[in-house]
Amino acid sequence: MQDGTLLAAVDLGSNSFRLEIGRVEHGHIHRIEYLKETVRQGAGLDAERNLTPDAMQRGWDCLARFAERLAGFKRHHVRAVATQTLREARNREEFLRRGSQILGFPIDVVSGPEEARLIYQGVTRLLPQSDERRLVADIGGRSTELIVGQQFTPGAVASFRVGSVSWSARYFPNGALTPRAFQDAEIAAGAVLDEAAQTFRNELWDVAYGSSGTIGAVGSILAAAGWEEGHITREGLEWLHAELLRARHVDRVRLPGLKDERRPVIGGGLSIVRALFALLGIDRMTVAQGALRQGALYDLLEREQPDTDLRASTVRALMQRFAVDEGHAGRVAQLAVRLFTEAAAPGGERAARKLDWAARLHEIGCRISHDDYHRHGAYILDHTDAAGFALPELHALSLLVLGHRGKPRKLEADLDDPVLALQLMCLRTAVALCHARREPDVQGLTLRLEGHRCTVHSRPGWAAAFPQSAHLLREEAQAWQKTPWEYIVEPT
Question: How far apart are CA 56 and CA 50, in angstroms?
């Protein structure tokens, strides 16, 4: 990516929405603008886990303001990432559909482990180079992420459903700061985080870092009170706990360094920090500058280069994990991408890359069963944690894996997308031509798309020389009937 390119990341957190814009300079990203709005969307989930109309409107209004600043940005230079609240919300598709339209860019919901990975990237990119083993903790509005790693490589990652907004609503519902409320909140947080005790035990890391919202707020309060700036200690937490108990109610808390929008959730946030320190044996935590949004920016930078795109490594790992026949998958992928590249409009490189991944994973379900393996494969992709991928990206791959076999009309609701339809045609054609599981003779074979009509043309004598391949292509033409698309084989 050229120096001077502007990249933007939008973090749709449970408590706040953030926009960060950075400029690429010699492989690094330097901030040029940062906007933050307290939306508190996580507090807008009702008893049925639906976002209330007011919560959705607050989010949409914020995205409209961000959209004005992002006008003119290229689509692949902006990454919008949604986290725990939208992972939980049953009506998230309604919010995401309109929110993406308002923002002008797609909003990706990421899994908890993927959120953790992005947080780790954001934190470590803004730290000095070091071989120290790092623990990174991020306490958000409705989830807490923990990561251990070294340099830019995360080891263990985990996400837990405990956050400052949800814990404040549950244990400090009226704002009262009582010893019993803190005790109950800390015990409950410890119970949720208990499974982290072994994976993130203190002998596995050298330095603990805290990222973003709650930890940043606690660090600011302690620094303003004269404690060591940029660090949180057990003694400092005890002091802050005593100050909140002395105030007795969030409305009476008057502490330098505590912002007004953070006051209603400080009780729940502090409870989780104290529980985390006790559980993992943390004595001192450094407040980090990086966070999820910086991780998303560097992820954009890496995605621009196929050799640094983490998603490609993840695909290879999935192939190995599920014992995919790599030779056959590679042949199918190479042919499918060739057909797509020749037929697609200019600028389809990203769609071709995703087609390549789907082709390499099209037999991933065979490890479970050869019967309906395409359905097993689609299920795996819809329910796996895959580093580098957002949930919508995995679902797009699962659609191609599901659709590569059987009647394509089962994807009728998705075939309105001409890019997906062409990807699927090319994948199904490649699978048919590679049926013998060896390199097919496809010299002179072309695939063209005009409107909703796809035409596959072969050289004279090809059908007679390869009757089974020709038969499978004629069956493919039959399969596309009763869909909005026409698949023609010439000569027949």
Answer: 10
